[in-house]
Amino acid sequence: MVVRISGEGQFTLPDADTERLNELDNHAVAAVEAGDEAGFLDLFAQMIALVESDGEPLADDELVESHVILPPRDTRIAEARAEFTGEGLIPD
Amino acid sequence: MAGLGGRMSTVIKAKVSKLLDKAEDPAETLEYGYQKQVELLQNVKKGIADVTTSKKRLQMQAAKLEQQVVKLDTQARQALAQGRDDLARTALERKTVIQGEMQSLDQQAAELASQQEQLTINEQKLRGKIEAFRTKKEVIKAQYSAAEAQVKISEAASGVGEEMADLGLAIQRAEEKTENMRARASAVEELEAAGTFDDITSLGSGQDDIDRELAELSAGSQVDDELAKMKAEIGAGGSAPELGEGEKA
Questions:
Q1: Residue B174 near residue B113, CB atoms below 8 Å
Q2: Does A13 touch chain B if contact means CB atoms closer than 8 Å?
Q3: Positive or negative CA dihedral for A4, B141, B18, B112?
Q4: pLDDT at A66 (0 to 100)
Q5: Which has the least CB within 10 A, A45, B49, B131, B168?
Q6: 8 A C-beta contact, residue B130 and residue B38
Q7: In angstroms, what separates the C-alpha of A58 from chain B's closest C-alpha?
Q8: Three-state SS sequence of chain B
Q9: What percentage of chain B reaches a pLDDT higher than 90?
Q10: Contact B129 A63 (CB under 8 A)
Q11: Which residues of B touch A31 (CB under 8 A)?
């Protein structure tokens, strides 16, 4: 699975990490919806850490689309709230 | 990839894909893809240059605010020396507000500087990918049938396109940040422009909106402390005689 951290680059991760990443992602969104800033920051940091620890940076001459794109590392809860909550904000 | 329904990553991916669709025309990929990528790279460079310019402008604004802080400090001392505690207080209140804004400006400018550094690194990376695409395209064309080559080249173009779209988003984000900072900096400048020392004098006891705003914004205790400290420094030089510290003046 190829994962991009937005604003940084792409990593190749074992497919086994998919579920864990997905779970963290959903919890992070739940934290945003609950207005739990500490929770969001912690969960999001765990996602980034997972990509960094398990992932291999993709070579610069590899030209592939990512399966997953994570928001920029310094995303704060206010930005996350604007982007990820509310039904109408999700593009098709 | 099937099975990944995390909302954050889905939303970000959708955003990038949307930009990607705009940037990429599959029909053109085979022959003109590289040319188009090089064109778009120019936009990226321009975007980064814009962010740099905005950052410099903000740093200049911050420097100007710093001068105002020095000026207000001097004015507060002058006012105290003339026994005008009220004017000194107003000057210090304004100084406190400006200092607060400056601090947040400085911090944001530092964040922006590191973002700008990252943008530049990614621009280099993108340039590398575009070159890789050019090479790969020729290799693919030589090795595969036209139909297969079309598919493979399209895939590679999507990879480059995603890199480009993501960099585009990062530039957009940095630009939004500078916009916010610029708006705040000019608000403070306007506040200060309306609050020169002469204006304070002419206002007398009448309160304007700015004064009310300042009174709300400024931390009263900090101003009190500073006023007391300044008084102590000026010592017996003021018109009100005080005990102790008399030797200084």
A1: no
A2: no
A3: positive
A4: 92
A5: B49
A6: yes
A7: 11
A8: CCCCCCHHHHHHHHHHHHHHHHHCCHHHHHHHHHHHHHHHHHHHHHHHHHHHHHHHHHHHHHHHHHHHHHHHHHHHHHHHHCCCHHHHHHHHHHHHHHHHHHHHHHHHHHHHHHHHHHHHHHHHHHHHHHHHHHHHHHHHHHHCCHHHHHHHHHHHHHHHHHHHHHHHHHHHHHHHHHHHHHHHHHHHHHHHHCCCHHHHHHHCCCCCHHHHHHHHHCCHHHHHHHHHHHHHHHHHHCCCCCCCCCCCC
A9: 7
A10: yes
A11: none
| Binding-site residues on chain B for chain A (CB distance < 8 A) | 1, 3-16, 18, 111, 115, 118, 122, 125, 128-129, 132-133, 135-136, 155-160, 162, 166-167, 169-170, 173
- Do A28 and A40 form a contact (C-beta atoms < 8 A)? yes
CA–CA distance, B133 with B141 (Å, rounded to integer)? 12
Residues with Cβ within 8 Å of B114's Cβ and at least 6 positions away in sequence, in order, are none
Q: Using DSSP, state whether A9 is helix, strand or coil.
A: strand
* Spatial contact of B164 and B126, defined as CB atoms under 8 Å apart: yes
ipTM of the complex, rounded to two decimals: 0.85
Distance from CA of B88 to the nearest CA of A (A): 39
Under 8 Å CB pairs connecting chains A and B tally to: 113
Q: Which residues of A touch B160 (CB under 8 A)?
A: 63
The alpha-carbon gap from B207 to the nearest alpha carbon of chain A, in Å, equals 36
Mean pLDDT confidence for B20-38: 66
- The alpha carbon of residue A90 is apart from the nearest alpha carbon of chain B, in Å, by 6
Calculate the CA B151 to chain-centre distance: 42
**Chain B environment of A64 (Cβ under 8 Å):** 155-156, 158-159
B200-217: buried (b, 16+ CB within 10 Å) or exposed (e) per residue? beeeeeeeeebbeebeee
